[in-house]
Write a structure and sequence with these properties.
The complex is a heterodimer. By secondary structure, chain A is of the alpha+beta class. Chain A has 2 domains: 218 residues, Rossmann fold (3-Layer(aba) Sandwich), CATH 3.40.50.300; 120 residues, RNA polymerase II/Efflux pump adaptor protein, barrel-sandwich hybrid domain (OB fold (Dihydrolipoamide Acetyltransferase, E2P)). Chain A contains 10 helices and 19 strands. Chain A has a 6-stranded mixed β-sheet with strand order 6-7-8-3-9-10, with helices on both faces. In chain A, helix 2 runs parallel beside helix 4. The longest helix of chain B has 30 residues. Chain B is an all-alpha fold. Chain B has 12 helices and no strands. Chain B has one domain: MetI-like fold. The chains are: A alpha+beta, B mainly alpha. At the A-B interface, strand 6 and helix 2 of A face helix 7 and helix 8 of B.
Amino acid sequence: MSTLALHVTLERGDFTLDVQHELALEGITALFGPSGSGKTTLLRVIAGLERSARGSVTFDGDAWQSAQSWLPPHRRGVGYVFQDGRLFPHLTVQRNLEFAARRAARRAIDFDAAVAALDLKALLARRPGSLSGGEQQRVAIARALLTSPQLLLMDEPLSSLDVGHKREILQLIEQLPRQFGVPVLYVTHNIDEVARLASHVLLLAGGRMAAYGTVAEVFVRVDLESYTGGLEAGAVLRTRVAEHRDGVATLVVGGERLRVPMSDAPVGAVRPIRIHARDVAIATERPLHLSIRNVLAAKILRIEPSATGNVDLLLDVEGERLRSRITRDACDELGLQVDQYVFALIKSVALESTLLG
Amino acid sequence: MTELELGPVWLSLRLATVTVIVLLALATPLAWWLAFTRSRARTVIEAVVALPLVLPPTVLGFYLLVLLGPAGAIGRFWVQITDTTLTFSFVGLVVASVIYSFPFTVQPLQAAFESVGKAPLEAAATLGAGPFDAFLRVASPLALRGYVSAIVLTFAHTLGEFGVVLMVGGNIPDRTKVISIAIYEQVETLRYAQAHVLAACLLAFSFIVLLSVYMLNRRMPLVKT
């Protein structure tokens, strides 16, 4: 567990970045928010790429920046994966990687281990110009790792890739913290990536921190709906793969089971899934003769009226939070009340569309 | 067949080589600054750098003569420390050439650094490279084409200068009598045959140099970022 204490402000035109918080970093922490919310700028401030940032950045007690001092990027223990890779076009893949390895202050990460982890062996003699987008990003990730960073910063590393490459690299990124013992700060505006990768999320809006917590905590909050996408987001359930056959995975949430089409789902793996509130219907009895396969027993925690004649229900499913949006009429007809036990009906297609992996 | 006068050829080549070396050392930091600064002084400096492009060489030469002459500010200082005059000497020619060819080195380098941009330098910094390291290992190789253009253009331009040399250096064999001056002198004294040889050499050389630059540019699809 590492601690990153941020007390930074940066002004640029009429945009102000102002983040005052201490982050406990472990695994992957998502830096999430709408476009223009300052995610990339914050990442650049942490890396020391924004000279005009005021305040302090302290990592595990090391002052990377304070009122009196300012460490340039090459003296901070960060690895940085840029959105566009930024490989050096005049060097081969091997030389790109060596560029980082040679300059590393300490050599905690082995060259061959990084090459193997990102499957680069066959690419070492190639030039970046001849690589596909996905290959370039794999090299960029390995290169950042080879600086043996204390903290790995990733700025939307998947944004320029097609779906197939996204999936492949997502699986690699997922392994990084455990494999190399380095915490990751991951910028994205894609909710699916947050759900799939991150344990914690820092939500930025208008240059300020709107929320910080576990992914489930932040995404279930109704007051953050405008940032997390509300209905679009719904909730994130942490599930575990119990079985995977013919492209359909059986996921377990507490004692409940969900069947979801998935291409890659090793048994035992944790697979967070995102369920849209509008894709969750409610029944007061376990329904029979229904085309919907996924039915979860749930308890109503909150009933909140929302705009346009709907109500939002916050549900508890074996300790996990789920959201449902139904019409006010339906709510009245069913006589729904807080603490009541109901059944949440989830359309499989809703799950399918949210899955990256 | 008249005897070929080789002195001016060697002198011109020496002058051009020294000028290129001095200019690379001076122009690189300036071009770097111009490419990346946000200072308002940039526009003014750019205009000053470009002046030799539009000034008549005689105007430039006149001011240099005043400045570098024994009575001028720089010339007097030079006499004090070296006991020789700066005007009508090889060193004086180098100083004049450096100023005269300044934009031919600065502008290609500045354009090259601008096209390299900040992105690769930021990447280098996050990979542990200090500023000079990043300049040497990342920016310079990526700006290689700019260096080739700068070197060739500066060399060829220095080789071809006439007005400034005449004003500052005069016509002293083996010290300031470069090819262009020699040709002028030969024409003045009606030695056309010799003038033909030198002029043809200069023409051929300039063409070959430019041709190789363009070929190099085409053949070397230098990695764009």
